[in-house]
Each structure stands twice: as structure tokens, then as C-alpha cells.
Amino acid sequence: MKQLDLKAEGLRKINSTLQNAIPEDDGRDWTVSNPMGQHAIACGLNAELSVTVDGNAGFYCAGMNQKADVTIKGHAGVGVAENMMSGMVRVTGNASQSAGATGHGGLLVIEGDASSRCGISMKGIDIVVGGSVGHMSGFMAQVGHLVICGDAGEALGDSIYEAILYVAGDVESLGADCIEKEMTAEHEKTLSELLARAGMEQDIKRFRRYGSARKLYNFDVDHAGDY
């Protein structure tokens, strides 16, 4: 495993080294020590690397990730795994606002809690949260899955499109056009697979499914107050 000391080498050099690393030549396993809560650590990775950020990270850690597996051993600031395309990002602590925002693919795992707008405008990413999420999570979520093993704050799934939300705990309130839907055997299978990929053991019978009522796709004066 190769060691990169962010305090000694600086953020620009650390990111450049990781972005240009070739697993077959430079090794697959990397550790970034002394992250010091700095922003944009391990962004734009596009190779099959395994990167451990050994401590708390600031805003947009592992943003635009492709192929890499990034583990943050601590908490993550705003927009962790923002615009993620593939690979896996794991936060062993809590995540701040907008975790996984606009993500197109891959898996984001947050072992603790996530703040507001978790999964905002998700476009194919899968997100598994071991704890609870804040208000307006799943806002305008288009495609993908958001699994919440704890509770959800107010306005869950506001203006949601075709993403699927699974919640084990209580939901404070549902947002515009978001409704509870039937939990079929197919959905239970998908949920079980997502939890297994995330390394979390949960009773899937506790979960309920939420999604779009499809009433806001086209303007309708009868629903004008919901837009």
C-alpha cells in the first residue's frame, strides 16, 4: 500500500498523483494521511484504485469518481461523491448535505447519518445510509435507489422522478408528488442486494418503498400549488 501525506505534499499533488496512477504500474492500494478536513480530496479518479482517506474530509471528497473504491475513515463534508459515475465510495462516519448529488452511477455507502438533500437529483447512483437522513432527501431524484436504514426528515422525495426510495424508520413527511408504494418480492430482492453490497445486515421486512405519483410530469392547473 502506498502512502500519501496530504499535509506534507499538498492537495494538488495528492490529487494529481491519484488521477494519473496506473494500477498495474503504480499499485492499486493507496492511503491519504492527514486529510485535515480539506476539500476535494481524491476527486476525478478514473482507474480501479482502492483509496483510503485516513480521517475526516471536507467538501466534495471523491467527487466525479469513476471506477475507484474510496473509503473515508471519518466524516465527510458537503457533496461527498458528487457527480459520481461508477465505483464505490464509503463514509464510515456521517455525511453532510447533498451526499451523492447528481450521481450517475456507482454505490455510495454512508455508515452513519446523512444531512439534508441526500441524493439530490440522483441520476443512476445507488446510495445506502446506515442511519437517518435530513430534510428533502431524494429531491428531484431521477434514477437509482436511496436506502435509508433509519428515519427520514421532512419532504422526502420532493418532486421525485423515477428513483426508488426505501426507508426502514419513520418519515417525517413526504414531498410533492412522492407517495408510498407497494413493496413487492422484486423490490425486496433489489433491496437485499443493495444492503449486501453495502455490507449492512438489516431486516428487509422493516422497509417501505416510496416513489413518484407521476402527477407533476406535465403541467396541470389542478396541481399548480404543488409545483
State the separation between the terminal residues, measured CA to CA: 51 Å
Class per helix and strand makeup: alpha/beta
The helix content, as a percent range, equals 10-25%
Strand order of the largest sheet: 1-2-3-4-5-6-7-8-9-11-10
Strand content: 15-25%
What Rg, in angstroms, do the CA atoms define? 18 Å
Number of helices: 4
Shape: elongated
Biggest pleated-sheet summary: 11 strands, mixed
pLDDT under 50 segments (min length 5)? Answer: none
> What is the arithmetic mean of pLDDT?
96
- The tally of strands reads 11
Give helix and strand order, one letter per element, not per position: EHHHEEEEEEEEEHE
Description of the structure:
It is a single chain. The chain is α/β, with parallel strands linked by helices and 227 residues long. The chain has four helices and eleven strands. The chain starts with a strand and ends in a 15-residue tail after the last strand.
Concise account of the structure shown:
By secondary structure, this protein is α/β, with parallel strands linked by helices. It contains 4 helices and 11 strands.
Fold topology:
Layout: E1 2-5, H1 6-9, H2 11-19, H3 23-26, E2 29-33, E3 50-53, E4 69-72, E5 88-91, E6 107-110, E7 123-129, E8 143-148, E9 164-167, E10 178-181, H4 185-198, E11 208-212
Parallel strand pairs: 1-2, 2-3, 3-4, 4-5, 5-6, 6-7, 7-8, 8-9
Antiparallel strand pairs: 9-11, 10-11
